[in-house]
Amino acid sequence: MSSRPRISFHHTLAFRLTLWYAGIFSLTSCVAFLMFYLLFVSVIRDRVDRDLLEQEERFSSVLASQGMGALRNAAVIETQAAGERKIFFRLFSRSGQVFSSSNMSYWRDIDIGSEAVSQLAAGRRQVFDTIEVSGRKNEVRVLYSIIGPGVVLQLGQSMESSSRFIETFKDIFVITMVFLLALAAFIGWFMAKKALSGLEEVTHTAQRISRDALGERVPIKHRGHEIDLLATTFNRMLDRIENLVTGIKEMSENIAHDLKSPLTKLRGSAEVALTTDAPLEEYRIMAADTIEECDRLLDTINAMLVISRTEAGVGELQMEDLDAAEVVREACDLFQPLAEEGGVSLTCRVPHSCPFRGDVGMIQRMIANLVDNAVKYTPSGGAVDVAVKEENRNFVSLAVRDTGIGISQEDLPRIFERFYRSDPSRSQAGAGLGLSLARAVVRAHGGEIYVSSAPGKGSMFAVILPKTEQPSS
Ligand code: ADP
Fold first, then answer.
1. What per-residue confidence (pLDDT) applies to 3?
2. pLDDT band at 438 (very low <50, low <70, confident <90, very high)
């Protein structure tokens, strides 16, 4: 069964982006075409008007210099030369009486425009008019002008070239728009696919992960800030999930490995108690041993839970303002009797106050584990020194030094692992969880823990903690 949900093509983002792109592109092209068309039509009209005006000027100068007869001849020759279906003229008086005209058989539908004549009468020298002739596809541009005393010229020219242009333009427009639309759809689709290819990779990785490949990550390929950000965020989320899963796995392995033997031991002694006849006193001793072992197991389980939760970031830290100097002082007071008992001198160097923000319970456990180890692994006659100070405005540092047995170079990299205990320390009580817990707490506060040690000379655990809340990594 495929886990991939079925999405119809027209619901995909790529399709919608393509549609938007093609739509906007076509609209812009249409507007550009329209503007170009209007500009061109006005240019053609201006040209026709200029032609008419030039002719009118020629006619009026013939009239002025050679008289009406010469004008008639000149006008007839001019119209015949240009084509009687292209231009025509009429000469008439202000009252509308026609003196002369070109062959008007083709133009018989065009009369003298009374509106234009009245505009001339009102004082205008020239009037232009555009006439549509029924049954013909070309419009006619007409100029009325007073070219001499009492002589009005009506000069007409067919707008054939303009109509031809418009027809051609329309054909070009349709072909170009079809081509542009196809191009826009193709480019839009290409761009949408390219922009979304990063998303597809994230989706594919997510699909592979859902088929149990938690180690997979989305490659960061600089495909654009948003996609890279998504991939980085997705990878971070996966890191976190992987950490959680690994934590859970490790914990179950640890439980299986380290809790099994004490439980088997407990079960064994209970079985012995059941099957053998022993004096009451022996049963009491056995019960006391069982309680002790159970307490130890409970402590171990609790420590494991705290480590796992802290490392996984489950359960928020109870952050509050606290004084690191006071927490360290209290820890020293707590361990003073134990140190004295073991013949170890415990010194505590703290400033008057060292303000800091953290989870007091967690910080106490971390310091207690470090001091406990230092006292535990320092033989009688040795010394333990605990110091805390403000490093600068941003950090607080804690150092726990001892002159104890030290840690070998082979053990050093492993001591923070859960349940790891070096051979020389096996004689001491402990579960091997103290340092793992300390490191988990320090990291949850955004800090780091370091160790330096020399076997036989002693160890130093240094902790750096930011003073304000930091996001735990
Ligand atoms: P535990 O002390 O319960 O064994 P920890 O996690 O606290 O567990 O420490 C892990 C191991 O690191 C110890 O078993 C010990 O070998 C070593 N260790 C820790 N602190 C010291 C120290 N101050 N001096 C020498 N060895 C130490």
1. 47
2. very high
CA distance 434 to 327: 18
The rounded distance, in Å, linking the Cα atoms of 416 and 434 is 8
CA of 246 to the centre of ligand 1 (A): 24
Q: Which residue has the tokens 């976190």?
A: 240
Q: What is the mean pLDDT of residues 296-323?
A: 81
pLDDT digits 0-9 by tens, 187-219: 888 888 887 877 787 788 778 777 667 777 877
- Locate the DSSP E strands across 102-231: 126-132, 139-148, 151-158
Residue 300: CB within 6 Å of ligand 1? no
Phi-psi region of 325 (alpha: psi -120 to 50; beta: other; left: phi over 0): alpha
315 alpha carbon, distance to own chain's centre? 29
Q: Which residues 6+ apart lie within 8 Å of 338 measured at CB?
A: 372, 375
- Joined together, the tokens standing for residue 264 give 């088997």
What's the pLDDT tens digit per position in 396-408?
999 999 999 999 9
**Number of the ligand 1 atom closest to the C-alpha atom of 402:** 23
* Pocket mutation for ligand 1, best pick of 307, 344, 401, 425 (most atoms within 8 Å of C-beta): 425
Strand extents, DSSP E, 53-192: 87-92, 98-101, 126-132, 139-148, 151-158
**Rounded alpha-carbon distances, angstroms, from residue 281 to 272, 284, 371:** 15, 5, 38
Neighbours of 440 (CB within 10 A): 25
The pTM assigned to this predicted structure is 0.54
**Strand, coil or helix: what is 20?**
helix
Mean pLDDT on 317-323: 88
Report yes or no: 435 and 368 within 8 Å, Cβ to Cβ.
no
Average pLDDT of the chain to the nearest whole number: 85
d(CA 33, CA 53): 30
How far apart, in whole angstroms, are the C-alpha atoms of residue 235 and residue 248? 20
Q: How far is the CA of 401 from the centre of ligand 1 (A)?
A: 13
Q: Is the CB of 430 under 6 A from ligand 1?
A: yes
Contact assessment for residue 15 and residue 9, using Cβ atoms and an 8 Å cutoff:
yes
Which tokens belong to 253?
A: 């392995």
